[in-house]
Write a structure and sequence with these properties.
Blueprint: H1 2-16, H2 22-30, H3 34-48, H4 54-71, H5 75-83, H6 86-95, H7 101-114, H8 122-132, H9 135-149, H10 159-179, H11 191-199, E1 201-209, E2 215-223, H12 228-237, H13 243-269, H14 271-277, H15 281-300, H16 345-387, H17 391-416
Antiparallel strand pairs: 1-2
Helix pairs in contact: 1-4, 3-4, 3-6, 4-7, 6-7, 7-10, 9-10, 15-16
Keywords: Membrane, Transmembrane, Transmembrane helix
Transmembrane segments: 284-301, 343-371
Amino acid sequence: DIVDIITAALDVICLLCDRQQKEMQDAMRNKGFIVSQVSFIFYYISKHCNNTEVYWDDMAQKTVWALIKMCTGNYDNQDIAFKGEVVVSINGILKMKLAKTSLKSSCLKLLEVMLEEIDENSWDLANRITSQLDITGLHKEMLNLWKLSFGPCKSIQSKSEDTLLLRSYHILMQIADYKETTINELVDIVKEMWDYCQLRTKSVEIVYKLSEEKETISRIYFPANFHIKGKNGIQSKIKRSTSEEKLFDLIEWANAVKRTHKQKHNLINNKDLCSLTLLHSSKWLLIILTILLNLFVLFTVNTPPDYNMPNGVCTVNETYNETCNNSTSSSPMYFQPIWYPDIPMWSTATLTILGFIHFILAVIMLMQYFYKNCKNLREFFSTKLLNCKNLREFSSTMIKYFYKSCKNLREFISTKL
């Protein structure tokens, strides 16, 4: 099928140009005119896309991401994509009522990439983009999204809707910066929506080195919604011995916070798992059940009647038909078998029921733990495996570690004895 072939080719382009591989980005422009061809595919989809068919949406999504990968940090590719009517295609996608929120968000991501100030000619490209972009339509999309997800008749807010709203706001801010004006002069202000976007938006200035002598400063807007605990945790735990160490440690902490936020978001969105784990309630319920079980054992379980073993010396007990047998041992001290405790029937039934509930909650908590930390565990084990050159070295390392642990344990036991 031609659609499958094109989709596979777009996946390859995304992989080749991932992480701003400039040589591959230039090759996509110079050899085969791939940037122009992908731009044409995107234009065709925006004009003839049938939103009722799933494969069109998937193909459109991959086409946009292929353009994002080829244009990120590459002015020449951005200019070719613009000439390929990319902005017109984005206008068409934003007007589609049936287009998915994720596809619209990806289109705005492409627009953000093309508005990056990374070259001395970026201002000219930004002005051309602004002249073609339907700013009124973009603002209208923001208003519709705000009414549906944040207004009085709001539906359940998703991360994609929040991302689309903030990206729309960031693009308007970038256009205002290029025009050296305020966002108030571009569109009509809706105070509640604007306050929300301003609260969730931060910006940084990035210095691009164009050549040995030329540099340019670009302001980048990005969504930020740090919890106060996460922010204080990073501030208190980050290393500050040197500027370089501070930077690398900040990057590590930022990635950790991002992973944690993503795991929490996945957990909240997974309705089945949320109902299964009861979120934080299962933890407190398990703690209460543990205390309750211990109290039941403490107050309802007693020692057997006629228990007679003074100072640990074995004596005959006729109730349980227990006798002392000293024919096989020369030790003067013997111990009787453990007898059944004295416990009421109602207490046994209650302990059985509570114990079963406790077991189920413990299993659920274990599942919840692995669901939240499976990615971190995979990274941990992959890092440990990569530290070994091959499987043989890894096995020998584990055997040596096990042998050393056993040796230390024997020395400890012999010392105590």
